[in-house]
Amino acid sequence: MVVLNKIYTRTGDTGDTALGNGARVAKHSSRVSAYGTVDELNSVIGLARLHAEGAVDAELQRIQNDLFDLGADLCRPEMEKDGEAGFPVLRMV
User: Fold this and answer.
1) CA gap 1, 11 in Å, rounded
2) DSSP letter assigned to residue 15
3) pLDDT tens digits for 58-85?
4) Who contacts 90 (Cβ-Cβ below 8 Å, separation ≥6)?
5) pLDDT tens, 22-48?
6) Model-level pTM?
7) Among residues 71, 61, 77, which one has the least CA distance to residue 25?
8) 30-49 vs 54-74: helix crossing angle, rounded to 10
9) What residue segments make up the domains of the chain, in order of their start?
10) Neighbours of 83 (CB within 10 A)
11) What are phi and psi of 77, to 5 degrees?
């Protein structure tokens, strides 16, 4: 069982949050909303996978992996050049 002794930062809520590199953005920004929506979709697909089998489950797993990558791309600040972050930028086609 996980025990959380401290679940606060003592810095208060100033209405912003950190991106992948520590840059601060407003919690209501489009970027934060987008990766929150991607996470929510990924959760729903996880529930669907509980009832899926075979090829359907495999396809849902592939989609989940792509969504994890998309969420990671969304939570990092935009780079001037593709691949500047040290890994190739994924493109959803």
Assistant:
1) 27
2) S
3) 999 999 999 998 888 888 877 555 555 5
4) 66, 69, 70, 73
5) 888 898 999 899 999 999 999 999 999
6) 0.69
7) 77
8) 160
9) 30-93
10) 9
11) -60, 155
